Amino acid sequence: MRKIHVIGIGAGDPDHLTLQAVKALRSTDVFFILDKGEVKSDLVRLRRDILDAHLPDGAYRLVEARDPERDRAAGGAGYSPAVGDWRSARADIYERLIAEELGEDESGAFLVWGDPSLYDSTLGILEEILDRGAVPFDYDVVPGISSVSALVARHRTGLNRVARPVQITTGRRLAEGFPEGVDDVVVMLDAHQIFQKYADQDIDIYWGAYIGTPDEILASGPLAETAPRIAELRSEARERKGWIMDTYLLRRRPRG
Predict the structure, then answer these.
(1) What is the C-alpha separation between 107 and 28, in angstroms, rounded?
(2) Whose CA is closest to 151, among 188, 98, 180, 103?
């Protein structure tokens, strides 16, 4: 039976791969990569760099396909259906790649940024394909170093404080309000810089973009002072590269 490895490759640094991930790479016959277009060609190059770092003889087969476009203008009640349509379109592509490019006894791999279990769609898409019943395969998951872990490591801080919870959420959810009962909040997928909404509160921010890559940018400090600088850094970086991947930790200072 065909075997699929879902491999977490860290935040961009080839050294972020675990030994388990390297072993999985070396047991893979075909690597599948979705091309997001010329603007994000860096993402394909970084994956190639990771493969070349750990498979130096170049004895690997790479199959690329174009990633389907997602309706990013959809909001409100239309957001979830738009994401569902995009995931199903991806499932069509994954299903075709597995069926056409992978022999019955071969193994393929999807290289997932960070950790496949944290805000990534690959596992859900594979389950959708299996539910269709047309292409049987088995799969396993190799955890990776997430951008969240890399972020706090680069800032030399922890995710949580003693006996206190931490919450991981999205910019879309943060826009609805700061989570109740939590003082340490990690925010991902924030294209609209929602952190600026809380600049009048006693909050520190630990922010990073392109974490684990040569383009890495870091900033931290009181949110009121640091938010304008982050906005400037994001604007400059997006203008230079055409895209940005960032995440941040908001830490509310103790009351009283």
Answers:
(1) 5
(2) 188
Amino acid at 8: G
Total number of residues shown for the chain: 256
- 37: domain CATH number? 3.40.1010.10
- Condensed to tens digits (0 to 9), the pLDDT of residues 150-163 reads 999 999 999 999 99
Amino acid at site 216 = E
| Domains in the chain, number | 2
Distance of CA 36 to the CA centre of its chain: 14
d(CA 226, CA 256): 23
The helix or strand, by DSSP H or E, that contains position 218, with its residue range, turns out to be strand 217-222
Q: Kindly report the number of other CB atoms within 10 A of residue 157's CB atom.
A: 15
**pLDDT of 212-254, one tens digit each?**
999 999 999 999 999 999 999 999 999 999 889 999 999 999 8
| Highest mean pLDDT pick, 10-14, 81-85, 107-111 | 107-111
**Whole domain around residue 56: which residue ranges?**
3-145
